Amino acid sequence: MRQYDPDLTPPWKRQRPAPEVPAEPDLVVEEVTTGFCGAVIRCEKTAQGPTVTLEDRFGKHRVFPMEPRGFLLEGRVVTLVRPRAAAPSAPQRTASGSIAVPGARARVARAGRVYVEGRHDAELVERVWGDDLRIEGVVVEYLEGVDDLPAIVDDFSPGPDARLGVLVDHLVTGSKESRIAGQVTGEHVLVLGHPYIDIWEAVKPSSVGIRAWPTVPHGQDWKKGVCRALGWPENTGAAWQRILSSVHSYKDLQPELLGRVEELIDFVTAPQG
User: What segment(s) does the record annotate as region Disordered (predicted)?
Assistant: First the structure.
């Protein structure tokens, strides 16, 4: 009996499999549906399947599913696939840029501490400097508000073997925050700050996929105003998770924050004497 091909599509009309191309960083491709053209920034594994983030020449980021025949490379249809992990040829680094110490155990917590102003600040510091802090034995805690700082310092009783570093939002000359910082700063207490209204602004806009952080009129809730201006739901918790998930290393943060955090870690871990 004659056998028939279950696929009745004529051979000359069938689509040929597209070549698979590893989505290596800086590879420039075009997404076939939207025409968005950009360089590969990163690949991620999600519950819906692998995705690739592209950055166009204006710095705009877009995330696309890595579907078969989903991209054009130099005019020809290709299927992007996750690149194979290469064996490390150089010392691996932590998210903060420090050289990683494979197998290192967390050090017993020091008496010294680093305080930040809120939960979002603490989560961001943990995301970028967490490995370093565990190796150094530095614990990060957060204030409920900078107004409580004098009482916290009093209760902490800083000394040569228990230094206290504090990171404050919007620490600019003449502000309430600067006056409080002046009250508590001493030999064993270092208060530093960044110029941003909130820690959200310390994340580079390009990493979040926006042109710039919007200006919110004075008197409005800043975080909700940002959500409104960007067209996001006015759910600041969800907005923060969106922002935090865009931070993968120190490269995603503004230098004004990087320097301050590094200085505080150095201060609380400096040898006595």
Answer: 1-25
